[in-house]
């Protein structure tokens, strides 16, 4: 009896389900307006080989941000400073590429990596021919936009050899970036020599503002030396180089001279260590910031005094009837 009851309940449930489903669809259809069109799932465009086009996910208006990328100026300064100039420009370019879309940022990073590898390989192998740069069909628009942007931003002396090296009607972004690495971050003997010379002989500063600028360049130079895998500068040479930076200023600032005398009695400076170099840099930076503020204040006061004196002279001459221009 229980089995027959269960079978009757199951059959009635299936019959109700098959009857109510079309009725529900009919009621839903009558509730919608005649102009209603069912939404469709958007399809991603595909490239010629049938794979998804990576550039189709980037909004068309986002490409306008490429106009905000600054131009890369001609190489200047010492050889090791050119690498810093390049790193700053690449940071700005990468940030704008990220603002456009993650896909474009990843493509830029891949092209930079490939260009750097080709440049290093060319350094070690000399004039040995390298494999031609190929572009996948789904990345053709990314390659075109990147290469045209680089041609617009790079100096002519940088992009012209890369254009001449290209084949056909395509300008390779990898060749352009490889030319950038060759001129701005050579990593050769000249750059390593200038970098070592700067670290071991920091220039003597004439003001505390120059001390801050020298310490900033010192941090950048250390980062560049680590990137080039140069041996670290000995601690005693770094301490001598730091002392030469404030050699003239130490005579004009008694507080700086006192603090340096106390610091030189510390064990990690008496027996030079990397920790002693770090503490000396921290001390010089804190004192330079405090004393540079006094320099700026004194400079502004002297400027205001000179202007006030000129105004008083003009007023006095006008009262006496003396011409300001001809006396």
Q: How many extended strands? A: 0
Helix content: 55-70%
Q: Give the C-alpha Rg.
A: 35 Å
What is the typical, i.e. mean, pLDDT? 77
Overall geometry comes to: elongated
Number of helices: 13
Instruction: Write the element-wise H/E pattern from the N-terminal end onward.
Output: HHHHHHHHHHHHH
Low-confidence stretches: 17-24, 36-45, 300-307, 322-327
Please state the structural category. Answer: mainly alpha
The amount of beta strand, in percent, is under 5%
Give a short summary of the structure:
It contains 13 helices and no strands. The protein is an all-alpha fold. The N and C termini lie far apart (130 Å).
Task: Describe the protein in words.
The chain has 327 residues and is mainly alpha-helical. The chain contains 13 helices and no strands. It has helices at residues 2-31, 79-100, 102-125, 140-153, 156-165, 173-184, 189-200, 208-227, 235-245, 249-252, 254-263, 267-270, 274-320. The longest helix has 47 residues, at 274-320. The chain is elongated. The termini are far apart. The model is unreliable at 17-24, 36-45, 300-307 and 322-327 (pLDDT under 50).
């Amino acid at each position: 009896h229980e089995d027959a009851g269960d079978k009757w309940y199951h059959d009635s449930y299936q019959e109700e389900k098959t009857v109510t489903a079309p009725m529900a669809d009919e009621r839903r259809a009558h509730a919608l307006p005649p102009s209603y069109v069912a939404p469709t799932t958007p399809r991603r465009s595909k490239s010629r080989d049938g794979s998804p086009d990576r550039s189709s996910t980037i909004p068309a208006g986002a490409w306008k941000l490429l106009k905000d990328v600054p131009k890369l100026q001609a190489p200047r300064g010492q050889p090791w400073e050119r690498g810093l100039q390049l790193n700053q420009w690449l940071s700005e370019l990468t940030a704008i590429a990220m603002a456009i879309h993650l896909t474009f940022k990843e493509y830029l990073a891949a092209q930079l990596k490939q260009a750097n590898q080709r440049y290093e390989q060319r350094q070690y192998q000399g004039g040995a021919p390298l494999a031609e740069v190929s572009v996948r069909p789904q990345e053709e628009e990314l390659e075109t936009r990147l290469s045209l942007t680089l041609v617009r931003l790079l100096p002519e002396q940088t992009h012209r050899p890369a254009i001449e090296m290209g084949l056909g009607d395509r300008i390779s972004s990898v060749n352009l970036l490889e030319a950038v690495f060759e001129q701005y971050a050579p990593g050769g003997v000249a750059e390593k020599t200038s970098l070592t010379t700067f670290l071991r002989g920091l220039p003597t500063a004439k003001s505390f503002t120059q001390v801050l600028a020298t310490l900033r360049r010192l941090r950048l130079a250390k980062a560049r030396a680590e990137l080039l895998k140069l041996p670290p500068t000995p601690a005693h040479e770094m301490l001598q180089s730091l002392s030469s930076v404030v050699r003239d200023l130490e005579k004009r600032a008694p507080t700086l001279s006192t603090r340096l005398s106390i610091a030189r009695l510390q064990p990690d400076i008496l027996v030079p260590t990397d920790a002693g170099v770090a503490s000396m840099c921290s001390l010089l930076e804190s004192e330079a910031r405090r004393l540079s503020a006094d320099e700026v204040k004194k400079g502004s006061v002297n400027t205001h005094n000179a202007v006030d004196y000129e105004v008083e002279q003009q007023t006095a001459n006008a009262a006496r009837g003396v011409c300001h221009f001809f006396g």
